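Please, is this right?
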Amino acid sequence: MTFKLLTTTAIAVAMLATGAQAQEKLKIGVTATLEGTYTVLGEDGMRGFNVALKERGGVVGGKEVEVIVGSTDASPDSAVRAARKLVEQDEVDVLIAPLSGSEGIAIRDYAKTQPDMTFINASSGAQETTYVNPSENFFRFNLDGAQWQAGLGEYIYNEKGYRTIATVGEDYSFIYTQVFGLALEFCNLGGEITERFWVPLGTKDFASVIAALPDDVDAIYLGLGGGDAVNFLNQYQQAGGEAALIGGSIMVDQTVLSSKGSAKEALVGTVAASGQGDTWEDEGWQGFVKAYQDAFPPEERFPGPSLLATSYYNAASAVFNALDEVGGDLSGGHDQFREVLANMQLDAPNGTITLDENRQAIGTNFVTEVVEDEEGNLVSKVVKVVENVNQTLGMDPEKFATIGLPAREVPECKVFE
């Protein structure tokens, strides 16, 4: 699959509103992982952004939008370099960034050095980004990785009957946060995580991990994405692996389910959780899916939007809605613009989103199962919807704070309530 819509680091969007040409431009900076293991995620994230821009004819707040894109490789250093160029050299008016978890923590810290710039998270999901020392000029309209697991631990324990699992995950903040959310629910019910395997982002050879996977567990949880997910599935299938699988959020979206080859068939029946579900019958979701499909030729997109496309679309929509409300006026240190963002109720395709006091999303989550649809595509079928998921996962904030931040062995697998 090629990516033709946005391939340079500076693209002027020439679409104008019907009628007179806008007199001024708004420069919107966007970063995405257009290099490395998560390239396919970044490409689809940008598709989601462009669907939001296309809906407005390229004009927001009465002004023509110029988009300047920064490319990253999912590393914190690359994220800061891209952001610094966009903010300090290109002098964008607003920055939507970044995509990946540890990038988000780095951009939060960079945001504190740029008090006159407003940062809107694109899709990164590390808990720490907004939960610890949040930046007043950083807003996140997507759930974090733990919120994106809400309902999964309960479902695999009560509905699937799993009592013991092992986990395999990429060794960085987002997947720590995903396992954190899964473990809190699953272990609190009496489930046991017997082993946790961590692999570097960009791993190509999974042979040693696959050989070490325990045989005496009910299922294996996979916290992998992009090229890592595809490589693991290919090698796991070749090794004859037959364990029941549980998926992290980016393991079972279209960036993996639409990949080439037959290895992805190993995911059929995999239960997972995410901020969206391909088969959700909600009218708003179905409308977004159609808009995504109509915006790009079939060979240049997935059958449906990935979680990254949805998150970028939501981030862009929040920015555009707020700019429309303030008439494109970002004077006064963005104060009015930020007030609108902070108090926004975003009617997103994947459910209503509001922000908490740390400017972190509260929203809807979906427990899903991978199935084959009528056209032979693999999709995530919704089996449960969890509404109003906050960052402490419904726990008392003081008790939640005692658990510690997501890490390789945090949380402990034990009963917390």
